[in-house]
Amino acid sequence: MDLKNIRIVISGLARNIASHLPKVLEWMRRLREEFHQDSCFVFLTNDSNDNTKEILTNFQAEHAGYTKLYVFDGLAAKIRARTARLAFCRNMVMNHIHANHPTFDLIFLADMDDITVNVDAAVIADALRSASSFEWDMIAGMAQPAYYDIWALRSKAIGCNYDCWDIIRHEKYRGASHQDAVKRHVDTWRFSAKPDAAPIPVESAFGGMAFYRLPATRGCTYDGVNKSCPNAAVFPQSLRIGNCLYETCEHVAFHAQMREKNGAKLFIYPALSFSPAS
After folding, report:
1. CATH number, position 185
2. Could you tell me the residue range of the domain that residue 190 belongs to?
3. What is the pLDDT of residues 86-121, one digit of tens each?
4. Measured between alpha carbons, how far is residue 110 from residues 156, 160, 207, 258 in Å?
5. Helix or strand run (H / E) with residue 22
6. How far is CA 251 from the centre of its chain?
7. What is the number of domains present in the chain?
């Protein structure tokens, strides 16, 4: 795969991450250089009380012509639920991408905090090149030493097909300790995979970063709020005592729509490997 022929949007959300942001922006800058010269950045920030906004504003000025920055200060007061706010922000970014870069090939989404501060852009680019060996529409990152993003994870292949934090809430209503419930429904699903391991099919995952084929994201939106019990089809009513969790991982709805509307094939890709800051 010749990355110089691929046009990509590199994107992320940022809030109160000034201590990590310069290093993250630097590896993102190097990553962009691997691709077609038309490739660009789209960032969104809101309500930071450090200098996150200033760092991004300066980056936009230094890379004018291919960097778009959205600033939504005051958003936290308007949308209280964190996952609903994340969904709003991700939808703003995705709407911008589809309106302004509809013919681009790929979208790369990444967390911009300590999770990705140690990313090596060359490793990410090489992982994408190697992904030409199989058919995919989304490949999610594989943190080392273990995949950690269980709230976003849905996978028949792995066995995790439910909202972990919702069932933890129900178990605590039934008298379980927080620690024991987390062991059962979060720690149980953490797993390791070497970078040369085979792609792992999923219905949803994120894990700090992901590449998306742009056409497979058309017509899809993020949603960070449960409209009904997210575990009704998985756990019997006797285990779902108390109110269901209002918030949910916003990636799950987006990935479900990718599959349902566009027939997308989603994977965790172990070659897309990085080590979060300890």
Report:
1. 3.90.550.10
2. 3-274
3. 999 999 999 999 999 999 999 999 999 999 999 999
4. 24, 23, 9, 18
5. helix 21-32
6. 7
7. 1
